[in-house]
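Records of this kind hold a single protein each, on a pair of labelled lines. With that in mind, the following record should read easily:
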Amino acid sequence: MPVGAFPRVDGALHAEGVPLGVIAAAVGTPCYVYSANSIRARYQQLAQAFASVPHRIHFAMKANSSLAILRLLHELGAGVDIVSGGELYRAHEAGFAGVDVVFSGVGKTAREIDAALDARVQLINIESEAELVTVAALARRRGVVAPVALRINPEVTVDTPHAYIKTGEKGQKFGIPRDDVERIGALIHELPNVALRGLGMHLGSQIANADPMREALPRLLQAIAVMRAQGHELQCMDVGGGLAVPYAPGDPEADVDEYARLVRDAVSASGLSLVLEPGRFIVAESGVLLTEVLYRKHAAGKDFVVTDAAMNDLMRPALYQAYHGIVPINITEGTVIADVVGPVCESGDFYAKQRELPDVQAGALLAVLTTGAYGYTMASNYNSRTRPAEVLVDADRFAVITERERYEDLVRLERAHLQWRTA
């Protein structure tokens, strides 16, 4: 975790210069709290690592799409990588222009592609022949030329903590198979309303060592050479994101230096500009989820710590069996082996199983660590629970950046009294 993001001062956990207990008292729990300086530090680490080659960091919005976080990254000079029309709308609301946007995803709808063309995004990442033909048809209808990049599946073995976050192996839904690249490159010449501007790949998430990139980059460079031989005027190569962050004690950190060295060498060999799409690496360690202990329970020889945060607030433990550190806001004497669980009516509603924890009692505040990525963006209203507030801390000040939902918000778009229609 970046130094200074969540220090313990006089026994109390802080976010930068603000006691987390003060935020909990002012905003309530559960709530997400983010450190602005942690985000700045991670962004600058990548910017410096690639300073010697032409590049642009496009933050992967799916990791955290809160407007205030996006505005902070916009101020730092980032672009964004989006995967939906809703993210395109959010990007615009946060101040990003079309030229700042790369549009990824395997299932873009006609409506989303139309919106991307209207916004004049920098690139639409193409993931299949059918998508390419659709983009060409929609661009022709508008009388414009769509700037596209082909996302190549490099078909390399990727070691990630969970199968769901592998995207660059053979047989995945992502990207264009290597054997199809030459044929699709030739097809683009038959489609006057698309222009091939780049080639890219994305290997997956939580990649700690550079070996997959070492294997994949020559395959991407080979595809670039094939496209150039076909006469395409390329401008950029996109290597995606996926750098690992540590969640559990002993987890490896990404080898940023070796990763950057490999990519810089490939970019220099290609003569193109580099597009990076980090998400988790920039924001994961910037965030904690604050929650209050509601009850202690002992059953069948086990201890339970029941909190007011649940799987609808943070889905990762239930979905990925993911580990998150959990620490008390105030130092607590003694320890207990317990499950940390929420109020949702599911056995999968837990944050930790048989974890050694400080012996916290009802009323204690806990911080669930490393929740700045894929926390709030995956939150839901399951069990008709309102989604939590979000707070941004910058040095010794804090601000609510997302208000806590109210019960009225749960039914705002629903209709109890129906207006029936007939065919």
